[in-house]
């Protein structure tokens, strides 16, 4: 199942958020999207997930425009984990994951043992099976995030879109979760904050700046000190391990920079 | 999980619910200023429905059939419809305080009904329920537009609803004071507080189909309503056609509210409290929450109607007074138990 974006344009309240964004997601790859706050990562994720409709350009799923697919048909092919979806309902951890079966169940389809098994497996995958009966509001941010991932896994869609999935997680769970996602037989597009995680887990990385994709390629190709300085305003050393892997080391800024550089605030 | 027990369990639960409802209707018809034994109620129903030919006092039969039973059935329909509206609005708007009364939908329906009844808007082409339906839709449209402008926060829709109900209540009072005769005005003021006194069988044939249709439409959307747990974007990513579901469910709750308001006036707290009570009993899954709310709402309204008839001998209280007297403390209790929910 292929997913691609062609010339996407999106604006909100008179401000252009995305302009002319094109992207081909290759089946089976782990594609990372990096970029500073407000560079358009979240908007791009919402557009390719079909949650929002682009004002210009289109998103193609299996060669057909997204709007030509039914909402449910899209959900059977694309699972999407947005940032920090919350609820005040007294729902259990397990019930939150069970929602992932929604696109596979009609109004009259009974819940089956197979659905139960899928939910069980998803809970185990994110290491939350022992918390299955806990109520949502008693769980930590990290535990909730793992349940969102479990819900997406229970959806069993071949394409998984993650918007900053490792927010709120401790380092062990951050790496564990990315490894878990990586091990799945899925096409993954993930907006990521941590450049080293992007380098470790992604097959390809798209770099966003000011609503455009300014670079796209393997981590070793994309993660250049000059580019990271231009996009993120940070000074880094990039170490390469010879096997195509690379590691980012951040350098502390000079104690008194000649000119203070302001980076645009949160806006996604 | 509870909502997905085997077929046998669900059939059993549905049967038990039906039995409970029938018993409540029977008790509703038996209790009153003159108490009539339950077996007379049963015989009356048998006589009327199956020409059973039981020998009973014609006066008893008349009271039960012509006054109390129709009244109990309408009370049941009204209670379940308002409770269903509460569930729908609370889930779609993700707000524990949402219900037709607080959001001004009932007030809008009242204004619509009064406009038709007193001002003669629609020149006879609009019936009272149709006027109420239009009023309900206008009120909901206005309140949601105001809420969106005010910033979509959890509180915004409630504040907009308060503004909306004040406005529509004022409009209703204005119309009544300006155009109605003193006699008309008295009747309408009584009706506005919620009143089942004038209810007869023709009202049943309006309330019952709407309540059943409402229940079926809600049950059809039970999974969709579950999917709104984490918000509209999450629902969309789970394959729910969000806009269509919104339109269908808002329309059906406007229809239910308007129908019930046009028959019994606007009644508060049922739509607000019953869904919370039902959640405590059966949990948050709509497959079970919707029928449970409908059942509890129906029984609560039958009981409230009985109380309104017997609490002051020789006088009938508006049923809205009873629902508020019980609903407000119950709601306070629920609020204090789930502080995190707002």
Automatic annotation (TrEMBL), chain A:
Stretches assigned to the ABC transporter domain: 3-235
InterPro entries tied to this protein: AAA+_ATPase, ABC_transporter-like_ATP-bd, P-loop_NTPase
Keyword Methyltransferase part of the UniProt annotation: no
Superkingdom in the source lineage: Bacteria
Name of one Pfam family that matches: ABC_tran
Coiled-coil stretches noted in the UniProt entry, renumbered to this chain: none
SMART domains: AAA (SM00382)
Keyword Transport among record annotations: yes
Alphabetical list of PROSITE patterns matching this protein: ABC_TRANSPORTER_2 (PS50893)
CDD domains cross-referenced by the UniProt entry: ABC_Iron-Siderophores_B12_Hemin (cd03214)
Keywords: ATP-binding, Nucleotide-binding, Translocase, Transport
GO molecular function: ATP binding
Membrane-spanning segments: none
The protein's role, per its UniProt record: Part of the ABC transporter complex HmuTUV involved in hemin import. Responsible for energy coupling to the transport system.
Protein name: ABC transporter ATP-binding protein
Originating species: Shinella lacus
Automatic annotation (TrEMBL), chain B:
Gene3D superfamilies reported for this sequence: ABC transporter involved in vitamin B12 uptake, BtuC
Name assigned to this protein: Iron ABC transporter permease
Family to which the UniProt record says this protein belongs: Belongs to the binding-protein-dependent transport system permease family. FecCD subfamily.
Principal place of residence: membrane
Keyword terms, alphabetized: Cell membrane, Membrane, Transmembrane, Transmembrane helix, Transport
Topological relation to the membrane, as annotated: Multi-pass membrane protein
Subcellular location: Cell membrane
Record CDD domains: TM_ABC_iron-siderophores_like
Transmembrane segments: 7-31, 69-89, 101-122, 128-148, 204-225, 245-274, 286-304, 316-335
A Pfam family reported for this protein in Swiss-Prot or TrEMBL: FecCD
Keyword Transport attributed: yes
Key word Transmembrane present: yes
